[in-house]
Amino acid sequence: VQLQASGGGLVQSGGSLRLSCAASGRTFSSYIMGWFRQAPGKERESVAAISWSGGTYYADSVKGRFTISRDNAKNTVYLQMNSLKPEDTSVYYCAARSPPVAAFDYWGQGTEVTVSS
């Protein structure tokens, strides 16, 4: 699976952005897809994930503000980010894993999100 993330940019605090991650491969619908982020000097952290059936997971820091979704027909996963805060500034990565593999083993290049105060 090859992943291509896009949609990052500069936004003011309180604003919104939608990230997209386009995937290649015929078995996209069976993959668990995730969004991660890594800020300078910090460890990478999980932001959100979505299963093939639409079950979702969110980090506490983004619950109620971010929404992950997927369009299996378009082989694309999205991350709608609302009410952005300066602390959301980071490079965001999409990733995929194929159960029963526990680790995300396919990664896209990052897309940078900067939230100004």
Rounded average pLDDT: 95
Q: How much of the sequence is in beta strands?
A: over 45%
Between the first and last Cα atoms, what is the distance in angstroms? 37 Å
What characteristic shape results from the CA principal axes?
A: globular
Relative helix content? under 10%
Note the run of SSEs as H and E: EEEEEEEEEEE
Provide the structure class.
Answer: mainly beta
Main beta sheet, described?
A: 7 strands, mixed
Total DSSP E strands? 11
Counting DSSP H or I runs of 4 or more residues, the number of helices is 0
Radius of gyration: 13 Å
Low-confidence stretches: none
Question: Outline of this structure?
Answer:
With 117 residues, the chain is an all-beta fold. The protein is built from no helices and eleven strands.
Feature tags:
mainly beta; seven-stranded mixed sheet; 117 residues; 11 strands; 0% helix; single chain; four-stranded antiparallel sheet; globular
Q: Could you please describe the fold and organization of this structure?
A:
The N and C termini lie far apart (about 35 Å). The protein has strands at about 5, 10, 15-25, 30-40, 45-50, 55-60, 65-70, 75-80, 90-95, 105, 110-115. It contains no helices and eleven strands. It has about 120 residues and is mainly beta.
Tell me the layout of helices and strands.
Layout: E1 3-6, E2 9-12, E3 17-23, E4 32-38, E5 45-50, E6 56-58, E7 66-71, E8 76-81, E9 90-97, E10 106-107, E11 111-116
Parallel strand pairs: 2-11
Antiparallel strand pairs: 1-3, 3-8, 4-5, 4-9, 5-6, 7-8, 9-10, 9-11
